[in-house]
## 1
Amino acid sequence: MKTIIMFFALMATLFATSSGFAASYSFNSGALEESSTYEEHVSFGTGRNYSLQRREISVPKDYGRLVTITTNNNVTILWFASEDGSIRNVNLDGTTPVIIKRAGALH
């Protein structure tokens, strides 16, 4: 019986760490960055299928609409304008492909 309980405890731990429960996040440069990557599959016809790993980030919807993008060395800067006239920037590593999700809110 003790062996069965230990087996289920081990399986629960493995499930938790492999199903995203152990994912880490960081809020840097104005965006929430996930430690996991997003895999994108692209096809350009027969025999021309590709995969691309992207870093997933979330930008709060309350930042407003994207108004321009600038660069400085290896930094890509996204500039947002909100309805109240505030201008916010999000700094990204310009060498890494990203997928941007609009999620989160200002408090």
Note: The helical segments are 2-18.
## 2
Amino acid sequence: MRVAAGVIVTATTTVVIVGGILMRVLDHTEYSSIWLGMWWAIQTVTTVGYGDVVPGSTAGKVIAGFMMLGGLSLFAVSGHATGRRTIAPTPHSREHFCIGDNS
């Protein structure tokens, strides 16, 4: 579980940094600094989206789409890892969930 958490944190941090840099380079009229691009990337990956900074160019919107999908994937993988760890099946768990005649 710790390894998975480390991978998720590393991947998310990398996506935020790369996304911030790409937004500054590809949509420099909206993003005056890399820090502003990273602020936007954090909002997008965490699905907060305050709306104070939005991409204006087509390239920026494409990056935004990938960042949004990445954010949703982050929550899906995190939820799966947490659920799998906390709701582990027991040897007798199948008996409780069988549907039909158990004779």
Note: The chain has a mean pLDDT of 80.
## 3
Amino acid sequence: MMTAGIDIHLDELPDDHVLVTVAGDVDVTTVARLREALHVLYEKRLQRLVLDLSAVTTADVTLLATLVAARRAAASRGCSLVLRAPSRPVSGLLTGASLTSVFRIVPACPPLAVRV
């Protein structure tokens, strides 16, 4: 899915895992596309939802709000949320908001290695 400033790619993986790769600018003008993609995934019976944020070039607090809501929605459905390789802008927001301990954050790795 491509809209102004954001690219979202979904990959269904074995064992009810989904990798969502987010690239570009995630801000008040683009975050709705990410929310829509995540809402579709909440309806599936996933065990793990991995958000690859390594290619996010800019981000604002709307991304943080979306991540917190995604974590809550996933947990309420028995699904774990993993943030993979947050870019420098995303890491800065997570650190500044003291949210690094709230999320499971893993470095860049092959998608299936996130299951560990």
Note: Helices lie at 31-42, 61-76, 88-96.
## 4
Amino acid sequence: MLKVKDQLRKLNKRDLTHLRDYIDALMADHEEAEESAAEKSGPQDSGKGSGKGKGGKGWVEVKMIGENGPYAYQRWYEGKRKKSKYLGKVQGSAG
């Protein structure tokens, strides 16, 4: 990990921004895979609504990542944990 950190220090702001976008997409993929695995293992209703189904209490958040985006994320709470799913780049946006 130390070698990775040393290499990251050599990157310029533009490259770091692209790297952050890539990492965000990877994190979203991991979250989606975890959700898929949880769905396959059966329902685990916390009683608070996942925000993903009918009548849920979730919301869509749009944010910029550095100078890139905007990107849409579905957000909801499961118990005390805030969960998110990457939805993609907002259509019609420049960038």
Note: Residues 2-89 form one domain.
